[in-house]
Design goal:
The first copy, chain A, is an alpha/beta fold. The first copy, chain A, has eleven helices and 15 strands.
Chain lengths: ~300, ~300, ~300, ~300
């Protein structure tokens, strides 16, 4: 059983379908409830949005992953963000006064609305699918929903407009999350996600975190700060690094962080959705680490190595 | 005339009152409209929330400051976040089924609600004051609002509970924003705000940004990444550094960033609300820079300096 | 059998005596011949000068250690540098026209000679002991030697002046060198010596070397560049670091250098002669490394660790 | 009048001749006396050796430049190091038992001697030219000198062997030194020489020095440590950096060192003898600094800049 941020017809649901998995699926009303169901073992894994190219990190997801029982990411999915304006059959563009949608969707069609429906009032709902469901009721106070085509069709609505997106490159990133599992083998375009809590009152702490990666030739894909919720001005960092935990350079960098930071959470190594192949520099390949091990052995055991 | 994120009775309104300014005030329905009114010169300055110890950066404020016509911060204000549960007179705790509030407020009383009103349904509004206003209508679908005492009283509501806050240390930071102005003299506990856009495809770029500060002995109070909205995985950084633009070390660091980054926005130097006095190390005081200037002059003009 | 840079009566000989060892000893005419005798197994270990607080590194020693078959340092000795002016009995200060000594000794009494024997001509010999031996011959062209009291006495000379030293703090550092051996346990004030050859054409290479140490909280006692003899402008670095090869932080730093530099020579871990106790920071103690190993094991084997 | 490390016929003399200057010349018996004559104004400039690809830095030159009254380098010259074996007419290879030469020359023909004159004894003199002069005396105790062809010919000697050099790529670097002068304009392949004294007891000090350069995109050609002569383990650094003091990036880096180090000596900007053209990166060109100045002016004077 796979959980997802529902209801049926959300972009998350669409992302889940792209995985082509055979499992049964179950919608959850919120990111938190979906991830908690994974933690409790009610579902094997859950799919939730993590980042949007317009609005940034999805804080509910980020915050749930960085607190509570540890979960790990098994896969990521990228979906272009394209909406439609959907209404009950019989409604025309001219009739649309009240629109309902999710706040992120509202942010991404603001300009289109300003040009096409400047007088419409927008109300926010918890998901675009919930917005579509609302509009499907005959007594709904809303005339139309901004939602995915999947949601529009699911609730028997009619598209007044499609391909609605202020930024045609907008994309949302989703992740498939499970309880900790033995890492799968690297695929050559891997990514590793972490949460790093710095020691307090340690100026230069962030720089040391970056050095743990740079000294091992590891590029970062993403680094974001999030408040730690206890005191204004305290942050932890959510980091995506190139490479896989099976690589020695990643292991040494993570152990370096573990030694010097207050807390480090390993959130999984998994294939990058953009399939950019990784380049590993001279000196930080697994073979280089193994050779260094052998060299250190001969230093610590010079007689043994002379004998053999 | 000073603008603020309204309506009357919001925490922002309360923050504005703590400034003790004589000016007339004008509420605005959104952060964006308030800041645009400052840009257009309709108000002299505007006060908006920028950061919350629970939810993190207020993205609308951060994004408006980092795009569009340049604005600058003149002051910051810290307010503790404490809510009340307010209803129309005659409503008792037992009657409360439908609550309305702002999403950030909802996030900060989640636990209290789970313990005290586990069955209440929460609907989100654009501000806690708007929520209070809604509840004040006799035909409101909502039984109570989570809002500030100011808002509750303003709309004639009755407190069913006060001092409601899951985290008693929660605080919101507000800023007073104006059009660019000549910097005021340092006060000894100053802060400088920036937005830095890295050059694309430049791994190690963030490390270089941090070095521009560390090499001049400047501590950072805050660094946050925000998506640049054009492509997933592109970020700019919102930075608060200790110190004042009138200091040579800050000037040199900012000029270093200006030379090596795609774009740097100076968002002002202003007193820290927490009044933590700054410590400036040997070698980066203004006097050290002046002495270095003199030394360089004698290198470039050895004969002149020998004469004098 | 222990070798030393002879002849009998040199400062090196004196340094050897301070070790209080029971072994027989054998003088060698040059640093190179002494170290080659160690390499060939003709002597168990050899003692040679490595550094002088006035003249700097002893290049013959440094260059021999960084080329040819690997040797390792077992101990270091510090001796104050104080000379005497020694002549054949019957010679007075007024008679001294021609002085003979070692170039380093000449450099360290230059000022004393300028004040006391401004007209004397100084000739250079391979060692101060050889200078004393020369003067002991009745037909020597030299009137006096600048040498140690040991050498003066050994050759039956008379002190015309003693305590001769331009800089009363001058000190020479000697090392006891042997073939590679299993490291002895740390004593708490340890030092580790290395030679590091950078990869050519790698700007920033030295900085990376320093980072390999600084990231593991290891202070350097000394870093010197030496030409690699193949091309002007090519250098290797002779490094003394705090700490012992038995420590995990040292092992990881050295393996990091081994991975990323052209060649790294381990020249031994041994007690510091100045007995300055070492301070190891949080996060880089052996226990921190062990804890990080355990953490990484649980990441790589989550099921196993959950079971146990 | 130009001084040089004499006597006539030294490699330094040869280097001086390559400059093709019209001035009269005067030999000095030592590097120190030559440089002191420059300081005293007895000669306009002096030429001395500074570095040898085999032996490394010429410590007398390096130490004189880093102490006493400030001098500056105007030019550098590279000369290949090739010796001849020169004797009085009538001497054959078989007769050669006693050879005299300068210690550096001895070091550079050691292997050749081992192969060709394994039994010859080598005595050291202050210069190869002085060695040649010695051999020219009929009653000299020496049979042959290792010296330059210029010196051999000058003293009427006969070449028993020429092109003598263990390493055919060996080269010596000479510098033309004068009292401080206004910097000449950059030529596009410039070099700047410095001496940097770190603040004592400041671990990480060398790394900060390197960062002052790297942050401004300045490559180092050479960095060498030299003892400061007061205490073993104290060093200053002799540094050659790419670029010219007329460049803003060099000025800012040097002022950064001046602010944070105990002492910085500027030893001149001058053309590289190897004529490798310099590459200046984006962000650290003079135009980038000027643009940053303008930007900072608008920040500090927003009204003025809005007016204009």
């Amino acid at each position: 059983m796979l959980g997802y941020l529902g209801p049926e017809g959300t972009f998350t649901h669409e992302a889940l379908l792209t995985l082509g998995l055979d499992s049964e699926t179950q919608p959850f009303p919120s990111v938190t409830s979906c991830l908690d169901a994974v933690r409790a073992g009610h579902v094997e894994a859950g799919i939730v949005p993590i980042e949007n190219s317009i609005e940034g990190i999805v804080t509910a997801t980020s915050d749930s992953l960085s607190a509570g029982e540890l979960l790990q990411i098994r896969a990521e999915i990228l979906l272009p963000v394209v909406f439609g304006l959907y209404s009950r059959p019989g409604t025309s563009m001219n009739d649309v006064r009240h629109i309902v949608t999710h706040p992120h969707a509202a942010a991404q069609v603001r300009q289109w609305l300003a040009e096409n429906l400047p007088d419409a009032e927008v109300t926010e709902k918890g998901s675009t699918a919930a917005a579509a469901e609302q509009v499907s009721h005959l007594d709904s106070p809303y005339d139309a929903a901004i939602c995915s085509s999947a949601a529009g069709e699911l609730y028997g609505l009619k598209a007044l407009a499609s391909g609605v997106a202020d930024n045609p490159n907008a994309v949302t990133r989703f992740i498939l999350v499970a309880r900790p599992f033995p890492p799968e083998p690297p695929c050559g375009h891997d990514k590793t996600s972490l949460v790093v809590h710095l020691n307090e009152d340690h100026p230069g702490g962030l720089m040391e975190v970056l050095e743990q990666f740079s000294l091992r030739g590891i590029n970062l894909c993403r680094i974001e700060s999030r408040p730690t919720k206890d005191k204004i001005g305290n942050y932890h960092f959510s980091i995506d690094a190139e490479g896989h935990i099976a690589e020695r350079r990643l292991q040494e960098a993570l152990m370096g962080l573990h030694r010097t930071c207050r807390e480090v959470l390993f959130l999984g190594s998994y294939p990058r959705a953009d399939r950019v192949p990784q380049v590993v520099n001279d000196g930080v390949r697994d073979g280089d680490f193994e050779e260094a091990d052998t060299w250190m052995f001969t230093i610590l055991n010079p007689l043994e190595s002379l004998d053999s």
